[in-house]
């Protein structure tokens, strides 16, 4: 069985001061390339699990989102292989896939034979931590301290270093 990092996107991988609705809006945070390279060197598979409720409310289309994700994959390709990106297009919380639901994580874990007990869900919101806990993962919280997270840190680089060291 493999171990993985399940990463939220906005606020973890990229800046999100304003909505990301086209590839030109997508800007990686400093340290993300190095963090994901280090994670992959330490045999973590990399997945992205992201709520994208803007689709349901009409701010962005699936095609636009896919274009943004293609840019992200291209930017990160020299540093890591993103195995798969899962997104929930729903805005309402009772959708079934929107975090804090663990559905996206559980589907990826089953498809790729991931050992959840050895894996981490990393996010910048408490709903990411809840989704990870509900899936049976360890968790990493970026930004405001979360008492339920296994690791807290200021950014993805900080979290990955804490996990690996």
Class computed from helices, strands and strand pairing: alpha/beta
Number of domains: 1
Major sheet: order of its strands? 3-2-1-4-5-6
Highest-level CATH class: Alpha Beta
CATH superfamily: HAD superfamily/HAD-like
Secondary structure blueprint with pairings:
Elements: E1 3-7, H1 32-41, E2 44-51, H2 62-76, E3 82-88, H3 103-112, E4 120-123, H4 126-135, E5 138-142, E6 151-153, H5 156-164
Parallel strand pairs: 1-2, 1-4, 2-3, 4-5, 5-6
Helix pairs in contact: 1-5
Name its key features.
6-stranded parallel beta sheet; D,D-heptose 1,7-bisphosphate phosphatase; metal-binding; zinc; 6 strands; carbohydrate metabolism; alpha/beta; EC 3.1.3.-
Structure, described:
It is a single chain. The protein is of the alpha/beta class. It has a single domain, classed as 3-Layer(aba) Sandwich (Rossmann fold). It contains five helices and six strands. It has a six-stranded parallel sheet with strand order 3-2-1-4-5-6, with helices on both faces. Strand 1 (3-7), helix 1 and strand 2 (44-51) form a beta-alpha-beta unit. The active site is at 8 (nucleophile), 10 (proton donor). Belongs to the gmhB family.
Care to give the gist of this entry?
This protein has 165 residues and is an alpha/beta fold. It has a single domain (3-164), classed as HAD superfamily/HAD-like (Rossmann fold, 3-Layer(aba) Sandwich). It is 33% helix and 19% strand.
């Amino acid at each position: 069985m493999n171990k993985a990092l399940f990463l939220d996107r906005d606020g973890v991988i990229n800046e999100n001061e304003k909505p990301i609705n086209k590839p030109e809006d997508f800007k990686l945070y400093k340290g993300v390339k190095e963090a994901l390279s280090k994670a992959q060197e330490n045999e973590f598979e990399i997945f992205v699990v992201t709520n994208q409720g803007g689709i349901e409310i009409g701010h962005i289309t699936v095609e636009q989102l896919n274009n943004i994700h293609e840019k992200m994959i291209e930017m990160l390709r020299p540093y890591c292989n993103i195995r798969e990106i899962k997104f929930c297009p729903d805005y309402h919380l009772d959708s079934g896939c929107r975090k804090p639901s663990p559905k996206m994580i559980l589907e990826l874990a089953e498809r790729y034979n991931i050992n959840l007990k050895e894996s981490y869900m990393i996010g910048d919101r408490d709903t990411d931590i809840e989704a990870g806990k509900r899936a049976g993962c360890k968790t990493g919280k970026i930004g405001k301290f979360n008492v339920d997270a296994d690791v807290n840190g200021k950014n993805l680089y900080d979290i990955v270093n804490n996990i690996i060291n």
